[in-house]
Predict the 3D structure of the following.
Amino acid sequence: MSLTRRGLLLAAGAVAGGAAARLTMSKGPSMDGLGMITPKSGEGVLNDASLLSETPIFRHSVLKDQGEALVTALRAEMKEARVAGRAFNIGAARHSMGGQAIPAGGHAVTLDAPQIEIDSASKTFRVQAGTRWHQVIAALEPAGLSPKVMQSNADFGVAATYSVNAHGWPTAFGPMGSTVREVQMLLADGSLITASRSENPQIFAAAMGGYGLIGQITSLVVEAEANMALAPSFVQMPADDFAAAFAAAVAASPMTYGRLSVDREGFFDSAMLVSYTPVDEPIPPVTGSGLMSRVARPIFRAQVGNEWVKRRRWGLETGPNVWLAGTASRSGLMAEPVVTLDDHDPARTDILHEYFVPPEGFAGFLAACRQIIPQSYQELLNVTLRWVEQDATSVLSYAPKGPRIAAVMLFSQELSTRAEADMQRMSEALNGAVALFSGAYYLPYRPHARVDQLLGSYARAPEFAAFKRQTDPNLLFRNALWDKYLGNL
C-alpha cells in the first residue's frame, strides 16, 4: 500500500523540508579533548532541532488552553515578563536551528492545544496557534479539503509556519503566508488585534516571516484547496537544464519538485524532476509514514561517509522509485512526519540550509556550490528543489521580485566545535554565492551569516527592525535572531 503512494525512496527527501524532530531541555554542552559537543538533559536551558542552540531561559511553560482562556494565560505570562524586563517568545515544535524561537533569559511558551474550525463554503479554516499540520490534515480530509500550502512535513505548527513564512511544494502559490486571510495576535502591550491585508496591514506584513517579534499569534484563518488524486511522472536530466524544465512543469502541475545527485563523483551533475498531475481515480487515504518510508531510513543514513551508498541511493531513486511510484492524495504527499528519517547517532546532528535563487541564476548557483561544498567535510545527504512564487507582502521576503527555486540542503554534521567552525565557513561562502545571483538564504537555520549578508538577502531588514521598535518599544518579544542580527540594525 505504501509503495503505490510514495515509492521506494520518496520519503528520503521529505526530511529536507524540515529539521530533525528534536527538542531538549539541557544544562549546556560539554566539550571533551576533541571538541565534541554532548548535549545533556536538565532544567533552565532550552534547545532546538540543531542541538547546538542551548540557551539559558527563565521559564518554559506549556499551555493547553483554548480560545479566551489561551489569551488570558498568554497575557498573564507576558505581563510577568514585561514587568521583570525579561524576553518572551511563543513556539510550537521549535524545529528552527539557531534559537529563533528561544528568548534568552526569558519566558518560553509552547502551545499544545489544537483547535480547528472548517468553513467548507469558503474553503478556509480557523486554527489556533500551536495546532500542528498533521492535525489540520486529519480535520480537512473528511471535508474533501487539503492545506493550500504547508511545509513538506506535518509536524510543524501552523502559526509557526506563518511566522517563518515557510513554503511547500504546491506550485501555484507563494509561501504559506500568501494563503493566510487574517491573524489574531497579542501585541506587546497586551492588546488583542486582528491583522490582514486590509486591517492593520503593516502588522500583517511584518508578522509574516517575522519570527514572533511583532506579536504573539493566537489564531489564523487559512485557505484550503480541494484534495485530489495525483499521479507522478519522473524525468532525469543534467542539473544545469533543470531550471527551464522546472519552470515549464510548474505551469502544468499542481505539485512538483526536484532532486540533485550528491555523491562527490557526480556532485550536482544530475537532477530528477518529479511532477504530479490530477487523475480521475479514488483519492487514497492519508495514512502517514508507510513501510517503505521506514525501509528508506537505513539506506538514507548509510550515506554518511560512504560515497558508494550515495551513488546507489541516487540509482534507486531514479530507477525503482520511478517504477514503483503510484497515485497519491494531495494531502498524503505532505503528511510524512519528519521523524521517519531521524538521525539516532548521538555524535551527529542534522543541519539544514536553504537558498532561494531566481530561475535564471540557478545554473550559476549550482556551479558555485560545486566549488564550495566539496571543500568542506560536511556530509550532504539530500537536496530537494521546490518552486516558490513571488512574495511581495512580507517585509522579510526571500522572493520579493519574482519566483524562486528553493534549494533545501540536508547535511549530517558531527557534533563538535571543529565541525561547527567548518559549517560556518561553508555557510558564509554559500551565502556570498547566492547573493551573486540576486538570491537569498533562509533565516530559520544556523546563524552563520554575517550582518552584511543578512542585508544582502533581506534589504528591508532595517525597515523591519524600526517597525518592531515602534510596536514593541520595550523589546518584550526577543529571540536569537533579534539578539544577533535585527536588534543591531
